[in-house]
Amino acid sequence: MDTDSTKQTVELPSYTQSQFDGEKSPCDLIMKGGITSGVVYPYAITELAKDHHLKNIGGTSAEAIAAGIAASAEYNRAGGGFIRLSEIPDDVGKRLLSLFQPFPRYRGVYQTFLATLGSKSMFEKVRAAVVTGLKEHLFTALIGALTAVLLVLDLIFTGWSWPVAVIALVIGPVLAVLIGVAVNLFKGLPTTLFGVCSGLKQSGYGEQGLTEWLSKKIEEIAGRMGRRAT
């Protein structure tokens, strides 16, 4: 069966300012938490705004952010707030990973975690984690490899078989990385209030962090960019 024939193209909605002008009936809006819901909510909110004036807006977890953005859109309804709100999913899709910027000391752990995401088999996830972990913690892996070499030489000269020596040589770098990561996390996480990403821009990244991007985006949607807050 040709799987390409089953694919469907989803046309995203587009809006005009006239859809949000005029009198609207009031509507309260409460959104439940869930990271993936953040992709759907901007369109859902925009659709509601065509027929309703958003009065009381709230949300839990990630959707508290969506509530703040919805409030800024309602604040600037006449100035295109909901048009800008509907553009968020496309904007986020282009920069999502760059918005989450780990502290430099946790960059290797973060990249290793990202390598395991996606529709992969368990074997592929483990392999990706090992390869990325060794790459991101190269210095620690080299120390583990050197230690393993010394151990292998000792095993060979004391009569151990080659297979045991080879296994030790393979496990050494991986074990060294695991120990290094564990020590880093247990010692470092309390100093960052158990957070890996602060939300602010970190060294090595060209774009703003999530918190800074959200702050700017809320101001843009509210039509307050370049205006002194009162």
Q: Main sheet, how many strands, which sense, barrel?
A: 2 strands, parallel
Quaternary state reads single chain
According to DSSP, the number of beta strands is: 2
Summarize the helix and strand pattern as letters: EHEHHHHHHHH
The number of helical segments is 9
- The helix fraction, in percent, is 55-70%
Integer average pLDDT: 84
Q: What is the percentage of strand-forming residues?
A: 5-15%
| Helix-strand category | mainly alpha
Overall spatial form: elongated
Task: Provide the low-confidence segments as ranges.
Answer: 1-5
Instruction: Walk across the major sheet and give the strand order.
Output: 1-2
- Could you tell me the radius of gyration in angstroms? 25 Å
- Report how far apart the termini are: 62 Å
Write a structural description.
This protein is mainly alpha-helical. It has nine helices and two strands, in the order βαβαααααααα. The chain has helices spanning 37-49, 62-75, 81-86, 88-99, 107-115, 122-136, 138-157, 162-188, 210-221, and strands at residues 25-31, 52-59. A two-stranded parallel sheet has the order 1-2. Helix 1 links the parallel strand 1 and strand 2. Helix 5 packs antiparallel against helix 6 and helix 7 runs antiparallel to helix 8. The radius of gyration is 25 Å and the shape is elongated.
Keyword list:
230 residues, single chain, mainly alpha, two-stranded parallel ribbon
